[in-house]
TrEMBL record:
Protein's UniProt name: FCD domain-containing protein
One Pfam family from the record: FCD
PANTHER family: TRANSCRIPTIONAL REGULATOR, GNTR FAMILY (PTHR43537), UXU OPERON TRANSCRIPTIONAL REGULATOR (PTHR43537:SF5)
Domain spans labelled HTH gntR-type: 9-79
Keywords assigned by UniProt, alphabetized: Coiled coil, DNA-binding, Transcription, Transcription regulation
SMART domains documented for this protein: FCD (SM00895), HTH_GNTR (SM00345)
InterPro entries linked to this entry: GntR_C (IPR011711), TF_FadR/GntR_C (IPR008920), Tscrpt_reg_HTH_GntR (IPR000524), WH-like_DNA-bd_sf (IPR036388), WH_DNA-bd_sf (IPR036390)
Ranges in coiled-coil conformation: 220-247
Length: 287
């Protein structure tokens, strides 16, 4: 069978889809219960195993929680952002995505997201943002580069959490997750980027001030500049990384016992991506 030809859905999948439609039609929400197993078996006229499989599908999708024992059953739950983000990242896992492509989106979306939260940040949000900037700053001299990147990404994740548009929040959150994934790739060499770190830190501080003043125009201006600046740093990092790879090739050619020999070409490309990413994500480091 050709790989892309759609297969016929299994009975359990049809039932799980039907239950999803029913949940929507009845406007059921978090904490509401589905009919018990016996009732579902009678309703669909199928075997217990099929109903259990259908419920398992809904559980894996994060739509219900299955509780065992007396008073147990299927309870509707609100799916979190993480499983959806993870599936999308899996989808993109084997595709080559460079920093330019990520920033093509970030330059637009992070700016819109930044503007959308003006006037919506609570005292707790401000405290979290301040703590994030302080953590970036106080570890500046000795902090692990990955941790620094994560902290920078964390700043943007905090803003995403306050965004009133769930779709915009999800896409920005997803892009940050993707940058974070790239940073944690093994063997990634993360050159120091103090200038970049410093710039990010400064932008974050200025953004917090603009949020306190509820100055929408300034927030828009700062975030746009911050993203453009980050993109430039990323491009410089990519160039540095490319140069380093050339040097590595020379060394490898001269010394066959070099540990560099153990690095495949693919590994190097991955490392290169990770570098790039880590740079771009400077905004966001920790979560
Ligand atoms: Zn940032």
């Amino acid at each position: 069978m050709p790989r892309d030809q759609p297969r016929r859905p299994k009975l359990a999948e049809l039932i799980s889809s039907d239950i999803k439609r029913w949940i929507a039609a009845e406007s059921l929400g978090e904490g509401d219960r589905l009919p018990n197993e016996k009732a579902l078996i009678a309703l669909y006229g199928c075997a217990k195993g099929t109903i259990r499989e259908a419920l398992k599908i809904l559980e894996v999708e994060g739509l219900i929680t299955l509780k065992t024992g007396p008073g147990g059953g299927a309870v509707i739950s609100q799916p979190g952002m993480e499983p959806a983000s993870r599936m999308l990242r899996n989808f993109l896992h084997f595709q080559t995505i460079d920093s330019q492509q990520v920033y093509q989106l970030r330059k637009l979306l992070e700016v819109e997201l930044a503007v959308s939260v003006v006037g919506l940040l609570s005292d707790a949000d401000f405290a979290a943002l301040e703590a994030n900037v302080a953590a970036c700053h106080c570890h500046h001299d000795d902090i692990d580069q990955r941790r620094q990147r994560f902290l920078e990404l964390g700043f943007h994740q905090l803003l995403a959490q306050a965004c009133p548009n769930p779709l915009l929040a999800f896409v920005c959150h997803f892009l940050n997750d993707m940058l974070r994934d790239l940073v944690v790739v093994k063997k990634a060499y993360l050159p120091e980027r103090k200038q970049f770190d410093h710039a990010n830190c400064t932008y974050h501080r200025q953004l917090i001030d603009a949020y306190r003043a509820e100055d929408t125009a300034r927030v828009r201006h700062l975030m746009r500049e911050h993203m453009e600046d980050a993109e430039r740093h990323m491009a410089a990092l990519e160039a540095e990384m490319a140069a380093q790879m050339l040097v590595s090739d020379d060394v490898a050619a001269q010394a066959t016992s070099s540990p560099l020999d153990a690095l495949t070409h693919a590994d190097r490309l991955v490392s290169s991506n990770a570098l790039i990413t880590s740079r771009g994500s400077d905004h966001d480091r920790n979560q």
